[in-house]
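Support case: user asked for a sample of complex input and structure output to validate their parser. Sending the pair below.
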Amino acid sequence: MDSIVLLLEGIVNALSWSVLTATLIGVLIGLLVGVLPGLGPAAGVAIMLPVAVGFGGVEAIAGLGGIYYGAMFGGAVTSILLGIPGESASVMTVLDGYAMAKQGKAGEALGISVFSSFVGGIFGLLVMALLALAIARVAIEFGPTEMTAVMVLAFSLVSVLGGRNIIKGFTALFLGIWIGMIGMDPISGPPRYTLGSMDLLDGVDFTIIAVGIFGLAEIFFNLSEKTESTRAAASYSLRSLLPRVSHMIRCKGAVVLGSIMGFLVGVLPGVGATAATMLAYAAAKKVSRTPEEFGKGAMQGVAAPEAANNSAAYVSMVPMFTLGIPGSATTAIMLGGLLMLGLQPGPLLFTNNPDFVWTVFGSFWVGNVMLLFLTLLMIPLLASVVFVSTALLYPVVIGMILFGVFSINYSMSDVLLALGAGVLGYLMLKLEYSAVPLVLGVVLGPMLENNVRRTLILSEGGLGVFFERPISLAFFLLAASVVLFPLISKCWKRKSNGT
Amino acid sequence: MKIETLDRVFAVFLFLLGLSIAYFAPSYGYMSDGNPGAGFFPLWVGLAIAGLSMVNFVRSVVGKEKLTQEIALPSLIKPVALTGALVAFVFLAEPLGMMLACAALVFAIGWIIRPRWDRVFTAKIVATAVLFPVAGELAFGVYLGVPLPKGLLGI
């Protein structure tokens, strides 16, 4: 109850002109950063850090936070309209959001994503404000053993996400894990599979793979399929560009599930919003009465990951505020901002600087509401982009990809890498290898390897530790049931039909 | 080429890739004093890729894998041309500069997708080729401070 009163006071304080202005600038920059492929929230926060810190105090963190969660709203725009993930946490939104846009439902998809992002954000903010310290204590119990089990559970979801052919799904997963290993080994140091290239020493940026696999591959596929006539035939009316309340009500289950998944996964240090969206999508597909519609324009396929990424964005700040442990690259930079302002993150921050903390939380609420109205107002304009001729649209889209990818490491080699990923993605589309397990492997593979090796180092090579710790055992059993249950169910049905 | 043939070729390629990943893995250090080294994970991942690709190959050969897509050669012309244009862009960006190379790319992609231009489309593509690179330079080069290639003409 005290926390609610403090939060309400924080919201009132956040409505001052200076904080309101900082929040508005932050969310606008975040929206732009999210829309541009290749530029993620970490880059946006890093670029604005020196400017933001100059404003000092609450305004600095309110602005930087605005960039972070604003990017989550913005990333969905290009995912839905162009099939290119604006940033890594929007990858899953491409699957159904872009399919809806191709069916002439771009406005509905954008509306669902805005609504889900808003609700997920409110949920994440509530959890952050009310349970921050308690959550931090639980999160810190997750050591490398438990994190390994969480990653294995995530990989077991390939049985849900891997498409029609599970063997091809797991092939793509392991291929993605290998791609994530390219570069210097983070534990012992030798460069792996870099072919002597200095450009590959830092590894392959996930954004490059995602933009190539989803963005360029889709463009190659559309060019080879003569889909221009299909796009032109989509109906053009103002009504079709606007979201509908009935759709938002229909997606309420997926929104709640996504928000919860975003909180559960996002709070774990080092996991991030991207993993949360993948798990949320898989969970929504698993519990859906019509899982076959996922990947073909199911609204729940947009709602769940969008709710998850916004919930995770706020909740991932909990370890940063309460323990001084950044949960992601973006919160690591924000932590730097806190230190530059002379503030020490940790439990004492709430005691020594309560006005600062609760006003910052209040600014996050205000920013979330700002984004809701800003993006809803822009939806008809944004959605009309899908009706532009591909001969004009694709040069602009590809140009944005080139500028965005080059801006990651200032290297044309990354553009060639993205092109290679595009060719691979095109082949995978044609040969029905699902791209989702591949990106799952690229994102989570390095985390899995790190945690497995750290666990084996701590246990001196003993594998039993994975099953001796109760949290880890529970996740392994859950992973086994996710994979085995559909197989057993299938065998049982065949046996029943045969008798 | 039939789609089933391409599926088998891709499976063989992944099989060989998996074997080579596993082959080079021990050179990074498999185990050291009972602790997994840098080559531990790649070895098993490589073997998994090889094994699963073998299964995919066999499934394709015995006819258990039914693919719905086609791969007619004429349908590949535009994707291949686009790939060529992008490769050319990579090599021209340094000498020409990002803006000029991007403008040339806009024209090239517009022509690949729509080889015949009427006056209206020509005006639109020219406007796009001029405005978009300028917008990119302003957003990335000026506002975000990205050191975009300037080329021999300095633009």
